[in-house]
Here is the input.
Amino acid sequence: MGEWGFAMFAFVPVLVVVIVALIFAGSYYWARRQGLLTTEPAAEGEQGKRRISLLTEAVAYVGAILLLAGGVAAIGQRWSSIGKWWHVGVFAGAAAFFLLVGIIVRQVREPAIQRLVGVVWFLSVAGVAGAVGYATLDVHENLGTFTILAVGVAVALYSAALWLVRPRALQNVALFAGLIVTICGTIAAVADPAPALAFALSLWGFGLAWAWLGWQRYVEPIWVTMPSGVLLALIAPSFAAGDHGWVYAIGIATAAAAMAASVPLRNTPLLALGTLAMFGYVTSAVVQYFGESLGVPAALAITGVLIIGLAAVSARLMRETRPPKPEEPAAGKPPHVALPPKPTEPGTEKPSHRDLPKAS
Here is the structure.
């Protein structure tokens, strides 16, 4: 039983990663279908022809991962024998190296190389986070709260600079993560111990603001900004819902708003996020407040069945009452076009009026 439980626990992160990847992929195709993707300039390679196959690109990434793993393993063997400032220097050197690689290859118009730029600059952000973290915690021996705040501010500023130069997906994710760490570090530094409600409400408000910035196209790309903000706004209330029951209302209202907004936007990933969040909050609230009673859970289950039936009937009625499309001409046959009247021979035209002579 213990091994089975460990296997299930190890499977949960993989499942979460798969769900998040599907949500972002669905958001990308939604933005592409709606014409919301920013047109990339030719220098970024979007309008150029692919010269590197996807298989070659995947093999190259595998080789790079093995190279990084070997370097990390070699440094790890000597990590305890080097000084504290050397720890900072390793991360700072890695950040500078990846930044320089991205600057050098950024002018190449091949799309695969452009994706590589996003990856190496994302690794550069990770190097900055490690350098600042070791400099504040290991060298100066500051408290953990100050370290979190310093790392968040450094990552946010550095990622913002990279995003301004290249507003792409991974730079957007790095900026989003840096702002989250900054918010958490600020709360932890101001209030000690920090209440869970402060984290929940702050992150909830930031998630809504981030989604709005994405929808208004202030923070590109929209297919990364919107789902990131919505996902954070849906998850954040759960941090304090257990201790403060009224926070369930915020979570349920946010989930309902996401589901309602998905209809006019025709955004399936947004509908999926709202549905999952609604299920989680409603189930958690029922278990917490009506765990010993079967009446309320049974009523909710019956109501859910009725709503599903109503949705199915409504969808069928809307499909049947939809006006039929005009018939299209059969394949291979030209559409019917009215032919002009045939011209008559001279002298045979009929007069338009009996009092008028015939045309000569």
